[in-house]
Design a protein that fits this description.
Blueprint lengths: L3 H27 L22 E6 L7 E6 L5 H5 L3 H7 L10 E7 L21 H14 L12 E6 L4 H10 L2 E5 L31 E5 L3 E3 L36 E5 L17 E8 L3 H12 L9 H9 L9 E2 L5 E3 L3 H5 L4 E3 L14 H21 L3
Parallel strand pairs: 3-4, 3-6, 4-5, 8-10, 11-12
Antiparallel strand pairs: 1-2, 6-9, 7-12, 8-9
């Protein structure tokens, strides 16, 4: 018979074993076999930066809720396996000058809908302008938040329509962003743009920022979970030359001498596969790495002027997908899947997705069944941290 001390030790061992068993079951629930082999153009690229953590409740369809600490390390056995040579190489980009000309960029338009009925951004105060606030939150994550800020001096650029108020521009500059004011691009008569997308074609002016070699464009409604510096080293972001053997006679403007556009396919349902299906051809224009050039900007605007050249329902996105269609002269390429996710669930966060694309300030997007409410709470916490940071900085 065991002594009381031995019995206590045995009990602790059994309890620890039980906890490990439950943890393993949760890992199996989150594990996707494709996670270990997903690649961009056949070359695996891992994320850099610190691992995200959050005390949260995991809720997946058909399973009871499990409460525990979610981290990129315990989400998937394959994610742990990938933290070898590639991950170390990506993380080694420590604080050095931004020698290759690279930048993060967002777009701010004065009259884009705020998702508060028909009210326009230009009619709201700064605190009520959802996209302006989201742009500030994005900038805080990229420039100041310790876990996600650039560690290679990559600047944050905001391309702003000239109709954005001076006070908003000044606030963004005080936050640390570089604001580039541009003239708006008017929609051609044939482009019957929905109200929520009016003015969005001015976003094409991000491609005119030619002082940079590569830029990562992000819509303002992003929660950044991992540092993004290393995305510019992704296999998919290699600068290419257009294909010469593809018919391009419909376009008035000539092709640029070189190009690069890399992104991820647009998810259309809130419940979807992750990693996404690499055969999906419709790229999401809310997260894309590109090579700026005046020639490609003129190529895009020539397509825009040609009547019915693309579906106007999602104007900028469909224009870019036409210009960079896979059977065309300048096909877009898939970035490594962990860089981003649209309509993300808590599973994608736990698997290590770096940029989670959703309007988390809207209750309708905080779906409990998919754990989106958890990510939404984290975004709100970052917003609170941003406001406190700038108050302390005499903002």
């Amino acid at each position: 018979m065991l002594s009381p001390a031995s019995q206590l030790t045995s009990h602790r061992i059994l309890t620890t074993s039980a906890i490990l068993a439950v943890t393993f079951i949760i890992l199996l629930t989150l594990y996707n076999p494709r996670d270990a082999t997903a690649a961009s153009n056949g070359s695996l690229v891992q994320l850099s930066g610190d691992k995200p953590t959050s005390d949260a409740t995991i809720s997946t369809p058909g399973n009871e809720q499990e409460t525990g600490k979610i981290t990129a390390d315990n989400a998937s056995p394959s994610a742990i396996a990938e933290t070898s040579a590639v991950d170390v190489a990506m993380s080694s980009a420590t604080a050095v000058p931004n020698e290759p000309r690279r930048a993060f960029v967002a777009f701010l338009e004065a009259h884009t809908g705020t998702n508060r009925g028909d009210e326009a951004q230009g009619m709201t105060t700064e605190d009520e302008d959802d996209y302006f606030v989201a742009t500030r939150v994005l900038g805080y994550q990229l420039m100041h938040q310790p876990e996600t800020r650039s560690n290679t001096s990559i600047p944050f650029i905001v391309v702003a329509s000239s109709e954005v108020s001076q006070s908003k521009r000044a606030r963004l500059e005080k936050d640390g962003a570089k604001v580039v004011v541009v003239d708006s691009i008017s929609d051609p008569e044939w482009l019957d743009t929905k109200r929520q997308y009016q003015g969005v074609m001015t976003k094409l002016r991000v491609f005119q920022q030619t002082e940079y070699e590569k830029m990562l464009y992000m819509d303002a409604d992003m929660f950044i979970a991992r540092r993004l510096d290393a995305i510019f080293e992704d296999e998919s972001t290699r600068i290419q030359r257009p294909k010469k053997d593809v018919d391009n006679k419909n376009e008035a403007a000539p092709l640029p001498s070189s190009f690069m556009l890399a992104g991820q396919a647009q998810q259309t349902d809130r419940v979807h596969k992750y990693p996404p299906d690499p055969s999906l051809e419709w790229m999401c224009s809310g997260f894309m790495v590109f090579k700026p050039s005046q020639a490609i900007f003129e190529y895009y605007t020539s397509i825009m002027e040609r009547e019915n050249s693309f579906d106007p329902n999602f104007p900028d996105q469909n224009l870019l997908n036409y210009a960079h269609r896979w059977d065309g002269p300048m096909p877009w390429t898939n970035v490594y899947y962990k860089w981003t996710s649209t309509y993300p669930s808590i599973k994608e966060y736990a698997m290590g997705a770096a940029a989670l694309h959703e309007k988390y300030w809207m209750d309708v997007n905080r779906v409990e069944a998919e754990g989106q409410n958890i990510i939404g709470d984290m975004w709100l916490k970052v917003r609170s941290d941003m406001e406190a940071f700038y108050r302390e900085d005499n903002g």
